[in-house]
Write a structure and sequence with these properties.
Layout (H helix, E strand, L loop, with lengths): L4 E7 L9 E7 L10 H16 L3 E8 L15 E3 L12 H9 L2 H7 L4 E5 L2 E3 L1 H8 L2 E5 L3 E3 L13 H9 L1 H10 L3 E2 H7 L4 E3 L1 H16 L3 H16 L2 H14 L4 H11 L10
Parallel strand pairs: 2-3, 3-5, 4-6, 5-7, 6-8, 7-10
Antiparallel strand pairs: 1-2, 8-9
Bound molecules: coenzyme A.
């Protein structure tokens, strides 16, 4: 069977507790611009389970496989993170055929992860590709990245949470423009509207992404999860309840070993050696 998701677990030096890993996932269907077919969703869901059960995995990075060399007489395929859901799986299907798949998909599995996730986008991230990037906590892009929700051109709308996540991230008007217009968004514009966190030269994207992930992977894994949970709470809770939720998380951290380790290390001008508790 085609290996549609490649996994590279990269060791993080000087991480505490020892053994920290950044798990790098490569969407690997370069001849189909890494389109997200059923099999790829299944693999993503499996990896999400592994990440939750492995305490050493501190951060997840998702990227697309680079284009393969062009065959003789053919043009090379363009770079892609993912050019969407696999459209070939849509033809002739009715709602009963697709409902169960869309109820349990890779976009939500990534979104539900308790650990930080980063999308590294080089080339096209369209439709379900933009949605997978939106399911990640942060997005780093190359100056060749192109985002968009072109489903409207297929008589569809985003089905992997795109309408909701775009609206939360960018606001109502921009979400409307992107979903109703179906146009592509160049990297510079994506940066201006806050769709991506940073843009790098293509040649620098990978190393910049690893450094970005390493920085997070070296924090206390316990505190990182609490921070993610507190920020997430802002999406579901009214403002005043969100502030209460944050305060409750903050106060509870005073019972952790890592708060004591972090404060002591600061006062002694040392690097903290987290316990993860
Ligand atoms: N699903 C399935 N296959 C896809 C795909 C998708 N979402 N996006 C691209 N592909 C396939 C193409 O069918 C083609 O396969 P082939 O070479 O076997 O014919 C291959 O990937 C390369 O794509 P191609 O369209 O030839 O590249 P291009 O450089 O001419 O155009 C895009 C690139 C991204 C503009 C174009 O592929 C595109 O519009 N893709 C669909 C985007 C979309 O609507 N996504 C939302 C899906 S809900």
């Amino acid at each position: 069977m085609e290996e549609v998701l490649l996994i590279d677990d990269v060791h993080v030096e000087d991480s505490y507790p020892k053994g920290g890993i950044i798990s790098i996932w490569t969407l690997n269907r370069p001849n189909k611009l890494n389109a997200l077919n059923h099999q790829l969703h299944e693999e993503i869901k499996k990896q999400c389970q592994r990440v939750e059960s492995d305490d050493n995995i501190r951060v997840v990075v998702i990227k697309g496989a680079k284009p393969l060399p062009a065959l003789e007489g053919k043009r090379a395929k363009p770079s892609a993170f993912a050019a969407g859901a696999d459209i070939s799986e849509f033809e002739g299907k009715n709602s009963d055929d697709v409902r169960s798949f869309f109820e349990d998909n890779g976009w939500e599995a990534v979104w539900r992860l308790s650990k930080p996730t980063i999308a590294m986008v080089d080339g096209f991230a369209l439709g379900g590709g933009t949605e997978l990037a939106l399911s990640c906590d942060m997005r780093l892009a190359s100056n060749d990245a192109k985002f968009g929700q072109p489903e409207i051109n297929l008589g569809l709308i985003p089905g992997g949470g795109g309408t909701q996540r775009l609206c939360r991230l960018l606001g109502y008007g921009k979400a409307m423009e992107i979903v109703l217009g179906g146009n592509m968004i160049e990297a510079d514009d994506a940066l201006k509207i806050g769709l991506v966190n940073h843009v790098f030269e293509s040649s620098e994207l990978e190393s910049a992404t690893i450094s970005f992930a390493m920085n997070i992977a070296k924090k206390s894994p316990y505190t990182i999860k609490v921070a993610k949970r507190a920020i997430r709470a802002s999406l579901d809770l009214p403002f005043s309840e969100g502030v209460l939720a944050e305060r409750s998380e903050f106060v509870a951290l005073f019972d952790t070993e890592d708060k004591e380790i972090g404060v002591k290390a600061f006062l002694e001008r040392k690097n903290p050696k987290w316990s993860g508790r």
